[in-house]
TrEMBL record:
GO biological process: sterol metabolic process
SUPFAM superfamilies: Cytochrome P450
Organism: Corchorus capsularis (Jute)
Membrane topology category: Single-pass membrane protein
Binding site residues for heme: C428
Protein name in the entry: Cytochrome P450
Length: 483
């Protein structure tokens, strides 16, 4: 009797379990069938639409990928597949606001697999977790009060940069020179390296590394991804040598504990009293050197481009900068107060970054299912926001193709429309740092030169940041005389 009872009980439990499973499966099918996903297409298996996403930029029209799909599917959100991931692209100011204001609530940071491969963590943590740690380390160095002491140093490097790379030449190519300047500044701020030959040695592999970060993660010889990994390993090896020497210098009191970010990292422990190892520090410095010079060098290059094309804008920038120069004693370096006087120059820089944003956009990941603009975004989907969805959108900027620095006077553009540095909790922590090095460069170049483009119709490509295809060659001329 007991045997039959146990058999019956087992069958009853099995029946209930199967019933619950069937109901659960039906509910899932019903929910899935009722879910309204964003319109769009995902393209080829694994590759998705990555090739078109990357190639439109390399052809000089990065906004085409976004605008074509906004017009075909939805101006608010569409579905695609980028870098091996199903992705919802949230468009316009509303999309930016949603993503920026729901950070760590509905969405979280996400980087393509290529980033974790190029920036591996020795602690087996993700690039997202490492970024959170990095953001805790940076504020003391990148807040305006701390940056004030960098202005004179940036001015010194700018002067040496023009003596080293521009003086005595009739023609120069701007983009590699701009990269040299911003990398030189980054090496000084982060590593206290200022010897131009040493800076050049370190700068060599950085181009390959930057191109590999946003690429299809296929690790085969000759691919951008493979070149990026090799460049990352080479630079990391160099950085570990610098870190070892700094440890010795700190122990022998030859280096200051507060002289740069490297010393700070070596001497700062976490909440558990643990210090970062050499490889972790090398990875973080590597990320800072990329972030600290690549985007700013692109912005500087396009500032030079637009000032060549718009002589009336150049003259207004020159007039403002000469007013600053007249207030300086011979040999006196720029200071924080001088930077605050460069309002028009910064408006010009902002308008340049609107038309040629150094940061094209960024990824997030859905932490849970949510609804946006009437469409369901499932947990785990990747999300992407694009500067192009607002920067050249006539709803956000009337006459979007017109160069107009006055857009940034007063309160400036509407919230969430001008996003060259991102927004919300993940806004670029180096925004103020970039403002300083850009304005210091503008001050030094317009005092020395006027210039004209040698290739009037030079193509612009994006790989992964916008750059003139030939690097923007220019002919140097004497500066205009301001009465």
């Amino acid at each position: 009797m007991e045997f039959f009872f146990l058999c019956g009980l087992t069958l009853f439990i099995l029946f209930v379990t199967l019933s619950i499973f069937s109901l659960f499966s039906y509910a899932r099918r019903t929910t899935s069938s009722q879910a309204k996903f964003p319109p769009g297409k995902t393209g080829l298996p694994y590759i998705g639409e990555s090739l078109e996403f990357l190639s439109t930029g390399r052809k000089g029209h990065p906004e085409k990928f976004i605008y074509d799909r906004m017009a075909k599917f939805s101006s608010k959100v569409f579905r695609t597949s980028i870098l091996g991931e199903t992705t919802a692209v949230l468009c316009g100011a509303a999309g930016n606001k949603f993503l920026f204001s729901n950070e760590n609530k509905l969405v979280t940071a996400w980087w393509p697999k290529s980033v974790d491969k190029i920036f591996p963590s020795s602690n087996q943590t993700s690039s997202k977790e490492e970024s959170i740690k990095m953001r805790k380390l940076l504020p003391n160095f990148l807040k305006p009060e701390a940056l004030q002491r960098y202005v004179g140093m940036m001015d010194t490097i700018a002067q040496r940069h023009f003596e080293y790379g521009w003086e005595g030449k009739q023609e120069v190519t701007v983009f590699p020179l701009a990269k040299n300047y911003t990398f030189w500044v980054a090496c000084k701020v982060f590593l206290s390296i200022e010897d131009p030959k040493r800076v050049d040695e370190l700068a060599g592999p950085f181009n390959a590394l930057a191109s590999g970060i946003i690429s299809i993660p296929i690790d085969l010889p000759g691919t951008a991804f493979n070149k990026g990994i090799k460049a990352s390993n080479l630079i990391r090896k160099e950085l570990i040598g610098i870190i070892k020497q700094r440890k010795v210098d700190l122990a022998e009191k030859k280096a200051s504990p507060t002289q740069d970010i490297l010393s700070h990292m070596l001497l700062t422990s976490d909440e558990n009293g643990q210090f970062m190892n050499e490889l972790d520090i090398a990875d973080k410095i590597l990320g800072l050197l990329i972030g600290g010079h690549d985007t700013a060098s692109a912005a500087i290059t396009f500032i030079v481009k637009y000032l060549a094309e718009l002589p009336d804008i150049y003259e207004k920038v020159l007039a403002e900068q000469m007013e600053v120069a007249k207030s300086k004693a011979p040999g006196e370096l720029l200071n924080w107060e001088d930077i605050q006087k460069m309002r028009y120059s910064w408006n010009v820089a902002c308008e340049v970054m609107r038309l040629a944003p150094p940061l094209q956009g960024a990824f997030r990941e859905a932490m849970n299912d949510f609804i946006f603009a009437g469409f369901t975004i499932p947990k785990g989907w990747k999300l992407y926001w694009s500067t192009h969805a607002t920067h050249r959108n006539p709803e956000c900027f009337p006459e979007p193709e017109k160069f107009d620095p006055s857009r940034f006077e007063g309160n400036g553009p509407a919230p969430y429309t001008f996003v060259p540095f991102g927004g919300g909790p993940r806004m670029c922590p180096g925004k103020e740092y970039a403002r300083l090095e850009i304005l210091v460069f503008m001050y030094n170049i317009v005092k020395r030169y006027n210039w004209e483009k040698l290739l009037p119709h030079e193509k612009i490509i994006v790989d992964p940041m916008p750059i003139p295809a030939k690097g923007l060659p220019v002919r140097l001329l004497p500066p205009k005389i301001i009465a």
